[in-house]
């Protein structure tokens, strides 16, 4: 049996009832993740309760309601960092999970209108220059892809040992995913075509010993900045 390697997967499968999966031994719960309590049933299958869901950063919502914006700091790679940067990434992640349908195969297939909506959403809460739009949209793609990867990990974890769990919406996301959309996503992940793609990606990752840390959006920004500097210096 494959098992999820972190608390997020366990929290995602936070079903009410005796069919809830047990937490990995020695796990600790992230304060931004749903809390988990052991039920009174089978000790190997504790009931998980008290889900408060993903962090929505209500402090930012309050700040926006007061007409204020959070400032963002950038490093020499033009990547946002610090408190403002963390808050921005959190807000991006919450927005894409809520507004980008799972039916899109890849981020480039997502409509430009939705990407523009993401940018407008971020501008309301953060003091960002227009040059940050490309980086923001790229980060949206990263967070959306990470979310789909989390869902996919859960599907492959329980598809053989507890396929009945996949008939239900993950409780952590039941308010933002349509049941029909979820079942179509599960079917797409269990298709032979995706199985081939997944194995190819796993093989590729196994060969990648030195993954870069700046991201595609960051690399593009750095390259563009270098070209500008060359132009200004007459090179």
TrEMBL record:
Residues 1-61 are annotated as: Disordered. Residues 7-19 have a biased composition (Acidic residues). This is Transposon protein, putative, CACTA, En/Spm sub-class. It comes from Cannabis sativa (Hemp).
